[in-house]
């Protein structure tokens, strides 16, 4: 019986190690985090934020008003967090 319990504990430990990498791949950038990323670069005001599918990828689009009165649109890849525009 002790051997069986030890074996179950060992298998449980090994299975969590094997699947740890999969959980890391699921981590995505939320719309809220993407908006914070854009706002940290300066004195901007968010006018709108949305998420769209563009070319099969989830893209966060953030519309901001810059201090000099211009409107800019930022595109952030939800999977990588990279600013694409």
Question: Can you give a write-up of this model?
Answer:
There is one protein chain. With 85 residues, the protein is α+β, with helices and mostly antiparallel strands. It has one domain (2-77). The protein contains two helices and three strands; from the N terminus they run H-H-E-E-E. It has helices spanning 2-26, 31-39; strands at 45-54, 57-65, 71-77. The chain has a three-stranded antiparallel sheet, covered by helices on one side. The longest helix is centred in the N-terminal third of the chain and has 25 residues, at 2-26. The chain is elongated. The relative contact order is 0.16.
Features:
single chain, 85 residues
């Amino acid at each position: 019986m002790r051997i069986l319990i030890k074996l179950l504990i060992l298998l449980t430990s090994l299975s969590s190690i094997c699947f740890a990498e999969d959980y890391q791949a699921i981590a995505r950038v939320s719309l809220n985090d993407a908006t914070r990323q854009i706002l940290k670069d300066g004195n901007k005001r968010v006018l709108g934020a949305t998420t769209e599918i563009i070319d099969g990828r989830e893209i966060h689009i953030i519309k901001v008003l810059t201090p000099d009165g211009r409107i800019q649109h930022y595109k952030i890849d939800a999977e990588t967090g990279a600013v694409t525009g």
